[in-house]
Specification:
Blueprint: H1 8-12, H2 25-30, H3 42-50, H4 109-114, E1 129-130, E2 137-138, H5 142-150, H6 153-157, H7 180-185, E3 196-197, E4 221-222
Parallel strand pairs: 3-4
Antiparallel strand pairs: 1-2
């Protein structure tokens, strides 16, 4: 048995498909040649969160990439989904939840007790609600403290939010709560790649995507390190 040693040009040179027929962008995605491109959305997301000027126009006009440049990116707002392994007490203790008429339609104090709030910290008590982010947080929310510590007044004035509740099992990856495919269907889909995730799963994350939402043509590419991007 003999083993052929690859030349330096083969190792470090461009990836080629010998004698290939005409291929589409999807073919290259399937082979992983441009799988990491979806990460290009991240700078725009950080600019929005940190209050920096939004990048617009042809981002690659001055960088030819040896291949004529990449297409102009859109300016849609990127979405990041956090799968909170181990769970997180969001409803009530962090973000105020209410009845059918929204956050102001407060539940009974005993209902908030079941969500983890002590009797003297339920939303019907004075100074227990903070609404400066366009979404009513509990004034003692750890989420709120983190956001306020890392944003300025201008950024906070441009923030809005929403909350919806659903039941889930305890710490498990079987909760079908990942909305990635529905968000993509609604328009939150990248120019260079539809979706990206950190795990090699159908949702790209730890939680399952609802079966009725899954679109195989938009399966997320996997990004686990900056080098992947």
């Amino acid at each position: 048995m003999s083993i052929k040693k690859k030349s330096d040009a083969e190792i470090n040179g461009p990836i080629k498909i010998e004698n290939h027929a005409p291929v589409s962008r999807r073919d290259f995605l399937a082979k992983g040649f441009i799988a990491g491109s979806a990460w290009a959305l991240a700078p725009s997301m950080l600019d929005l969160l940190l209050g920096r000027p939004t990048l617009t126009g042809n981002l690659f006009a001055a960088d030819p990439f040896q291949c004529g440049g990449l297409p102009q990116l859109n300016t849609k707002i990127p979405v990041i989904i956090f799968d909170l392994s181990g769970g997180a007490n969001i409803a009530g203790s962090n973000v105020i939840v209410g009845g059918p008429n929204g956050q102001d339609d407060l539940l009974q104090p005993s209902d908030y007790a079941s969500l983890g709030l002590p009797p003297d910290m339920t939303p019907d008590k004075p100074n227990q609600i903070n609404n400066q982010l366009g979404l009513k947080f509990h004034s003692d929310s750890g989420f709120l403290r983190g956001i306020l510590a890392r944003t300025d007044a201008t950024t906070r004035s441009r923030v809005d939010g929403a909350i919806f509740c659903t039941s889930s099992a305890d710490d498990t990856g079987n909760n079908p709560h990942n909305p990635m495919y529905w968000l993509a269907k609604a328009g939150a889909s990248g120019d260079l790649g539809h979706l990206a995730g950190t795990q090699n799963s159908e949702s790209g994350g730890r939680s399952l995507a609802p079966r009725s939402s899954i679109n195989p043509a938009k399966r997320p590419v996997r990004l686990t390190t900056p080098a992947d991007a």
